[in-house]
Fold this protein.
Amino acid sequence: MTKINKNLYQKYTDIWLNVIKPDKKWVLFSNGTIVICDETWENLELEAKEFLKEKGRVVIATPLADFNVKSLDDNSGWVVFSYHESIITLVLEEEREKESNEDEEDPMSIGLYGRYKRDKDAKELKVIFVKK
């Protein structure tokens, strides 16, 4: 893991720890997506991977491609909600600056980028943090 990835992973972790209620259990994937865990899950990492693999993939022209965007209160980025309330992806301002040649902050472009990251997480299934 590169230093850049460690820094980015730490930012994802810190932001999610501040955004999600402390009593919630969740699993963070390497592209910023979290799965909020069901209370009945015993092996959080394993079950979150299965859940994201099944419900996080993007299938165009279905609810699996739907998203909704909300700005973070500190303006450091956005959360991109999927059609399922337990799958949420973080898009940082610095990521948008690196990925886009334009200064696009419209919800559609941010949502599409967040959806891309969610789909990537659903394929790679690389867990970087588990909040128990």
Q: What stands out?
A: The chain has a mean pLDDT of 90. Residues 67 and 82 are 5 Å apart (CA to CA). The radius of gyration is 14 Å.
